[in-house]
Amino acid sequence: MIRLVIAGALSLFLLAPEPAAAADRPAREPTAAQLAARERMRNCNAEARNRSLRGDPRKAFMRECLAKRPDRPS
After folding, report:
1. Cβ atoms within 10 A of the Cβ of 44, count?
2. Residues ≥6 apart with Cβ < 8 Å to 40
3. pTM for the complete prediction?
4. CA separation (Å) from 24 to 17, 18, 19, 39, 73?
5. Where is the signal peptide (predicted)?
């Protein structure tokens, strides 16, 4: 009996509509910093793939690659 009650409550929870606040909120554009980080991740992943790095060497390479900052103009 308790399993039936739990299953019924769970099905009601899963079938509940989304909150209206989430549907009304427009998607935000990524910031320049987020776009730069995404591009850096893409480039580092490509370089690691080209070098066929796996496991700990890949982790070390990615850590070093992602920590690098592009030179800033003075």
Report:
1. 19
2. 65, 66, 68
3. 0.56
4. 14, 11, 9, 30, 41
5. 1-22
